[in-house]
Amino acid sequence: MWNYIARRLLQLIPTFVGATILAFVIIQIAPGDAITRFELDPTVDREQIERLRQQFGLDQPIPAQYAKWLSGVFFHGYLGLSLDYRSDVWSVIRQPILNSMVLVGLSTLLIYLVAIPIGVYSAVRKYSLGDRALTFLAFFGLAIPNFFFALIMLYFAIWVNDHAGMRLLPVGGMTDQFLGGVPRQEAPWIARTLDVLWHSILPVIVVATSGMAGLVRIMRGQMLEVLSQDYVRTARAKGVAESMVVYKHALRNAVIPLVAGIGGLLPGLIGGAGLVEVVMAWPGITPAFLQAVSAIDIYVIMGLITISTFLLIVGNLLSDLLLAWVDPRIRYN
Amino acid sequence: MKRILVLSMLALAGLALAQPKVFKGVEAGRAGGNYRVTAISDPRTFNPFVARETSSTDVIGLFLPYLTGYDPYGLKPEGHLAQSWEVRNNGLTVIFKLRQGAKWSDGQPIDADDVIFSATAHADPKVNSNARSSFILDGQPIKWSKVDQYTVRADFPKPYAPALIQSWYIAPEHIFGEAYKAGKIPELWTLETPVNRIISGGPFMLESYSKGERVVLRRNPSYWGVDDKNNPVAYLERYTFTTVSDLNAALAKFLAGESDLYAAANADQVAQILERIRSGGLKGEIFPNADVTTGTNFIVFNWNHKDSDKAKLFRQVKFRRAMAHLMDKKSMIEVALGGLGQPQWSPISIPVKQFFTDDVAKYDYSPQKAAALLAELGFRKKNAQGFLVDATGKVLEFNLVTNQGNNIREKIAQIFAEDARKIGIRVNYRPIDFNELVRQLTQPAADGTRDFDAILIGLTGGIEPAFSRNVWQLNGSLHAWNLGVGGQAPKQVESFEVLIDKLMTQGATTLDPAKRREIYVQFQKVVAENVPLIYTVAPAYNPARNARIGGLFPKGQINSIVGQFPYIETVFAKE
């Protein structure tokens, strides 16, 4: 077992180097660099521009820049300097990552809480009206683009507020400036937490609906497969109550692949919720990443790629281990 | 009795010592309230020596002082932290008297040491501050020295007209001094620094910052400003920047009444705001076409072309005039700007009244005149495809690019390209990536050639023509049509370029305002006559405001340089 884990962790190194080299080269192929946008400012002199490039090491050859960055990551855990913020990358991306985690964490929770019961229901009442309706809704959520659904939700929030004559739903954003009449930073932490949760209602719904369909279908398929197996028939023949058959005998086995998939959620957690964040003005990692790309803030991009590559590999490992843990048939020796 | 006498004498002494600046507002204001604006981008830093972009300096400018700026009513220099000044030595020396009694928010006095320290740090190439160009005049340094605790002296290598505009930010020496010696200035006042450790010498001080959401500043109670009735300013209790993703989100915030001031970018936004006001959804006002923005849009041809035939053609003033005759500015305003804008003919922005002149060569839209001028250059016949050819059968052809995503420029370029094709010029229009465009424009090959034909681009304009020397002087880094290599003048220059270079130098070193105007009027005439840059149209300035804010200019006084109010100090919330 430990042998296996060590081997997997060793595999991390070539994967990591390969992925980052590829990213580094692709960013460099794009024209210009982080300093280019200052060049059309008539009040900035050429020597200032040149000195900025020197300061940031942008005048060095690309392999040298990459080597310097990589050694920083390996030996000091230093992700580099953000060329846009002129401070270290971790301080730039930490807060957006945490903000995104709120959204992704809550919506993942919601997905599992809703998708598993729906999947079970759909399997048990196969081809019933309820099954068809829920399946239709789940696919509707999958088919509708997130950014568009987010816009509709914003419109919905404005409509609700206009009709209620008060602010029942927030229109974008993650926090309010004033909570109960006092500035946010002076409000008690419970009020601040509730405020964030209140703001997250709509984006969480948007993110959750898009992720739900897949899980519902997997759950339904798994349940159907398990329910048709011999031991379920045996249980029924023994006169076990139907609810016991479904929830105790069948569900436990059907849910195994879902448990194994949890590790795969890890990189998704910091990957952010995508364009929903942009549309709903959630200060998450997607807007930060887009900003870094448009400013060619190379080390912020690299930093995000580093962390998500790392989490992807660790997440996969975790999935494999979880699978071995829940399924006694699997052994890694 | 005696005690009262002593007290009143003390009070008098205090008055004599404290020298607050009087901010004359538009109307009498009241204290309190929150002023809310949107920002398209987060600040990148709170450190004045590191800041490079307006999203940072817009915030820094609210909590750090500067010596002098423009008086919003007359656009002449006025003192901020500098209470007065004296020009000596035929303009080579300026002695600034600082306001006594001005304090940082931590109680330390703001004095000559802070000013001299800030000047030294800004000028230091190792710090590489964005304000560094304010400390060098044609390669020679401007020397700053301390005279006494409240007097500083600036020595210029030659007379310098904008010498009285010293709007670089002054930072507290007792905070930055040690770090500067250790070479660690960039580590101070970053976004990670707790905001209560960032002290203020301006009207506001930082209260909170949340990345990607908002920056909140609170009134600085120890500020050195008063209104004309000696009440302390700023009136506003809070100043809030809300970060939004783009202009549309900013508009949405304004329409929802969640931000107070806005400048509509185009006719569509103007219509949306008008509609919202009319339907009663928003209590506010908008003034479409109140002024013109200071930015410029122009087409520049490449005189350093690899293809020597093209370089030769682009150097012909007749060719450029023909192109100027092909600018259908009326259609450009109608189509690209939705009717809100003005044609531009010369390099100085229209709102800069003290230098702008309308009395320059203008090229009316006339394909006939353009065709006649091209015929004089040898393009008389058309080939089978209907394109003009010269005597050797070479087609009159060039590529025109502009930066992708700028809708106004893309439309202007399309209108021009279409009109040019109508008289038989093969213009291949293509939008390209901004960074690629900058590379083509600013980075010549080792032999001095560049590989574009024509570029439609814009530059931010400003009130002071001397600050655009990089565009007009022969060795300037943005001498876009004819660019030298390595900071040198281009190899082959036309006589009018030398004249422009001379006029720019004269304009920067002449102190008499009337003579300066004369010089810049001539400069505009020379440029318009020789059209090194072919100007297009300037978008209108369409300011809008929420009715809850007071202290704003009435319609007639609005201009795009100053904005909607004279000073932030005298803006107030009505309720």
From TrEMBL, chain A:
The chain crosses the membrane at residues 12-30, 97-124, 136-160, 196-216, 254-276, 296-326. The keyword Membrane applies. Belongs to the binding-protein-dependent transport system permease family. Residues 97-323 form the ABC transmembrane type-1 domain. GO terms for biological process: transmembrane transport. This is Dipeptide transport system permease protein DppB. It comes from Calidithermus roseus. The gene is dppB_2. It is a multi-pass membrane protein. PROSITE patterns: ABC_TM1 (PS50928). GO terms for cellular component: plasma membrane. It is found in: Cell membrane. InterPro entries: BPD_transp_1_N (IPR045621), MetI-like (IPR000515), MetI-like_sf (IPR035906). The keyword Transmembrane helix applies. Keywords: Cell membrane, Membrane, Transmembrane, Transmembrane helix, Transport.
UniProtKB/TrEMBL annotation, chain B:
InterPro entries: Peptide/Ni-bd (IPR030678), SBP_5 (IPR039424), SBP_5_dom (IPR000914). Keywords: Signal, Transport. Residues 1-18 form the signal peptide. The keyword Amino-acid biosynthesis does not apply. Residues 76-464 form the Solute-binding protein family domain. GO terms for cellular component: ATP-binding cassette (ABC) transporter complex; periplasmic space. GO terms for molecular function: peptide transmembrane transporter activity. SUPFAM superfamilies: Periplasmic binding protein-like II (SSF53850). Pfam families: SBP_bac_5. It comes from the Bacteria. CDD domains: PBP2_NikA_DppA_OppA_like_4. The keyword Phosphoprotein does not apply. GO terms for biological process: peptide transport. Belongs to the bacterial solute-binding protein 5 family. This is Putative ABC transporter-binding protein.
